[in-house]
Write a structure and sequence with these properties.
Length: 128
């Protein structure tokens, strides 16, 4: 089963449980696609300068920019992708960690979608 969340604007804090071998969880922005497995962090897309940022607190993720560049990001790192597809990967800063913590200071809501193959639970965060 493949799950994909498109982020056009704003910040989303996430904690994605380890996926089964045949499952995939992706975040897509206008500049990058990230495949997540057993990972915690945040992803942000700034629609003003069209830059995407991915911060990983734990775990790892693979990514592909819309220009075709591919790579891996691990915990304690931050990826920034510009609109032309160029990117930089660096050690996370204290500001990144603070943004991650604030992305989790929200109320968790849940939606359950029932399908013939089973239930899909989607948890999302709502500002308090």
């Amino acid at each position: 089963m493949s799950k994909n969340t498109f982020i056009d604007k704003g910040v989303v804090g996430f904690e994605v449980n380890k996926q089964a071998e045949d499952e995939e969880f992706k975040f897509t922005t206008p500049t990058v696609v990230a495949s997540i497995r057993g990972t915690e962090g945040f992803i942000e897309h700034n629609d003003i300068d069209t830059t995407s940022t991915i911060f990983l607190n734990t775990g790892s993720a693979t990514f592909q920019t819309l220009s075709g560049e591919e790579g891996t990001i691990g915990s304690g790192n931050t990826l920034k992708v510009k609109k032309d597809g160029s990117y930089s990967l660096s050690s996370s800063t204290a500001e990144d960690s603070t943004r991650f913590k604030s992305s989790k200071s929200t109320t968790t809501k849940q939606v359950i979608i029932r399908t013939k193959d089973g239930d899909i639970k989607i948890e999302y965060l709502q500002d308090k």
